[in-house]
Amino acid sequence: MNKELMVRWLRALLATIIIFTIFSVYLFLRREIYNLGIANKAFGSTAAIVAGITLLIGPVSRILPQFGKALVYRRSLGILAFLTGLIHAVISLFFIPQRFTIPFFLKEWPATATGLLAIGIWFFLTTISKNDKIKQLGGSKWIMLQQRGGYIAFLAVFAHLIFLKYAGWIEWFGGKTQKTPNLANPQYPPASLFVFLIMAGIIGYRIYLKLKHDVQSHG
Ligand code: HEM
């Protein structure tokens, strides 16, 4: 690996670690406890935000050309989103059996299916991320697969989050979230609500750009 590539990977890794740390600190402040289950929430949230940043770099750099330098980070950030999402999925499925049992995953099948769909798409996008695949598939087909795949997976994660968390958000807005030994400060908003708002903003921005583009190309 050449030096430039290594620096790029280290920066992307640093950004991912910073996002993970912010979520971990917030979750700790809200709960005053930290364990594998809480780290798992931070892994899922980090994956969602890093994926969102990856999707934003392209459109933002078209409007603000100084962001053009960030385009090369999309591959490393995308792969890091996949890896943190994979860690989250493996911990959820196999390492917290006292909370997340097989009946839980079957009952919550829409959340399970959308989570697995996102992981599957990100895995596929990672396998075709190498330069030789761009040559093999042809540039425009490769870009189309990366963009469509990236957005479909992002929407799947968004649905996954809503399926699992909306009941808790409604409870929190109604002031009904109780203090428990695992939740010292229920008055603080759930971290997942911030993830929801950021993801909704990114999806909304994308829809706005698409509508603007459609209006311009038809008018
Ligand atoms: C790309 C893939 C995925 C992403 C980005 C993702 C993201 C998230 C996020 C942001 C949360 C909310 C965390 C919170 O409570 O603060 C969450 C919760 C959860 N996810 Fe995923 N997820 C993914 C895939 C999966 C898969 C495949 C499974 C297992 C089948 C899974 C199981 C869970 C469970 C059980 C929770 C609830 C965690 C809790 O309340 O402590 N996720 N996920």
Describe the fold and architecture.
The chain is 80% helix and 0% strand. The mean pLDDT is 95. The chain has 219 residues and is an all-alpha fold. It is globular and about 55 Å long. The site of protoporphyrin IX containing FE has 27 residues, from helix 2, helix 3, helix 5, helix 7 and helix 8. Protoporphyrin IX containing FE binds next to helix 2, helix 3, helix 5, helix 7 and helix 8.
Topology (SSEs and partners):
Blueprint: H1 3-31, H2 36-63, H3 73-95, H4 102-107, H5 109-127, H6 131-137, H7 139-173, H8 191-218
Protoporphyrin IX containing FE is lined by residues 37, 41, 44-45, 47-48, 85, 88-89, 92-93, 100, 105, 112, 115-116, 118-119, 122, 157, 160-161, 164-165, 191-192, 195.
Keywords: Membrane, Transmembrane, Transmembrane helix
Organism: Candidatus Gottesmanbacteria bacterium RIFCSPHIGHO2_01_FULL_46_14
Protein name: Ferric oxidoreductase domain-containing protein
List keywords for this structure.
binds protoporphyrin IX containing FE; globular; 219 residues; mainly alpha; 8 helices; 0% strand
How is this structure best summarized?
The chain has 219 residues and is mostly helical. The chain contains eight helices and no strands. Bound molecules: protoporphyrin IX containing FE (HEM).
Number of strands: 0
- Rg over CA atoms, rounded to whole Å, is 19 Å
Low-confidence stretches: none
Query: Termini separation (Å)?
Result: 48 Å
Work out the helix count.
8
The proportion of residues in beta strands is under 5%
Shape: globular
Overall average residue pLDDT = 95
